[in-house]
């Protein structure tokens, strides 16, 4: 066990580099495209009319750097110290690609449910004041807000990795691919622009998909729209904000109809 712990400690910088690079590449790409190159293009759907201030970007980036450190510790402990006790499949060739695709889907829904549960928990007044309000300082989120968490929230968010490895038999590569998908969709959720087409939220599948508008409303209004990838649990438990459809339509109608 001591040897495993020493190995884990030595791997933390490596994990920080990899997790940090995924965050930095994804957030930077979206930020440069939407907040620099195409900032004032009329064909884009800015959800809130104003842009965040420089101090907002800086605050979110600093909290994200701390979050990535916490995620790195959780990842290293999960993949080294706890790996012998988990359901991780040691050899990729043991199962088929179809099987791994199925585990990816299971991870998707498990994380979606887990996030909804802890997100509602963090909105209880006592816990909101203690740590979740750090994330909500960004009432007008940007790509840098994706990982802007208080350390306690970062721990709760990061433990989904451990939960996945102890409940879903899959390979480490598939788990990593899932978390690459996670950061991409997380950055989109905080993007401040809506990428889905006009009327998408009213289609048979769009009704269940979480959008940038839905999560932006959560940051703007503080309550409701607690989902991550889907709106399934918001619809089931009645926490979808009533103005969601209207706000989505406004965001896609014209730049003048954005939130203020």
Overall tally of structural domains? 1
Q: What is the 3D form?
A: globular
Class from secondary-structure proportions: mainly alpha
The count of DSSP E runs of length 2 or more, i.e. the number of strands, is 0
Poorly predicted ranges (pLDDT <50, ≥5 residues)?
Answer: none
- Helix percentage: 55-70%
Rg (CA only): 19 Å
- Helix count? 9
**N-to-C series of helices and strands:** HHHHHHHHH
Biggest sheet statistics: none
Q: Would you tell me the overall average pLDDT? A: 93
Strand content: under 5%
User: N- to C-terminal separation?
Assistant: 55 Å
Q: Which key features would you list for this structure?
A:
9 helices; globular; mainly alpha; 260 residues
Description of the structure:
The protein has 260 residues and is an all-alpha fold. The protein has one domain (2-195). It has helices at residues 2-37, 54-81, 97-122, 125-130, 151-167, 172-189, 212-221, 232-236, 244-253. Helix 1 packs antiparallel against helix 2 (54-81) and helix 1 (2-37) runs parallel beside helix 6 (172-189). The protein is globular. The model has no long low-confidence stretch (mean pLDDT 93).
